[in-house]
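Narrative of activities, Objective 1.

The group set out to show that a structural description can be obtained from nothing but a protein's sequence at a throughput compatible with the screening campaign. Below is one input-output pair from the validation batch, recorded exactly as produced.
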Amino acid sequence: MPIHYLRTLTAPERTDRNNLHLGITLCFVAGATNAGGFLAVGQYTSHMTGILSGLADNWVLGNSRLIIAAVASLLMFMAGAITSTLLINWARRRGSRSLYAEPLMLEALLLLCFGLLGGQLDSHSPGLVSLTMLLLCFIMGLQNAIITKISKAVIRTTHLTGLITDISIELGRLIYWNRNPSTPEHIKVLCDRTHLKVQASLVMAFFCGALLGAFGFSHLGFSSTIFLALILAILSIGPLIEDF
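Output recorded for this entry:
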């Protein structure tokens, strides 16, 4: 992909095309991070639905340690999203071209921190494991807020329930039988094939990233995050250089 186009992926000027390409890339990174994070800490850190469900279960069961872990995970995910929002709005006020690149570069640096911090997990310190999990939750919140603001809430990258629901709806429309060919267009059931392709592309990117993340973590350990951090750094470096 040309360097010029790579720079447009995080530029302030947005098109449906570069939104999709950025969304696919971030879905890939999210899938790899989520799968690798699960192998590291035994929990999917982008799944706030599961974390809230676990919070309710452990509240009823009276497991205070897991209640604290769930609340902390939720708060760190929110903190990541809040940080991303603050960085983007602050950069927009300054007229910066790197308003989307800055939080992506921060994510790249945090992924490197995850690799460095995760390497210490051999010490089997419960506190360190918790810190690693919270760092991953922060990263997931940071990334999801970036693409949500860029695409005006059309694209999500860290969880797939809504994407798979959208795919299923479009498939249902695709196989629906409009019995009468003369049915007026405004009441015909028609599949939005473009939307279906977009959602399917995002899901496949997440899945491919998860496969690579699980494979990389299994064979390379925490150093596999260097590749993911490099992807994000390449995406964000162009607008940052323009500002400087």
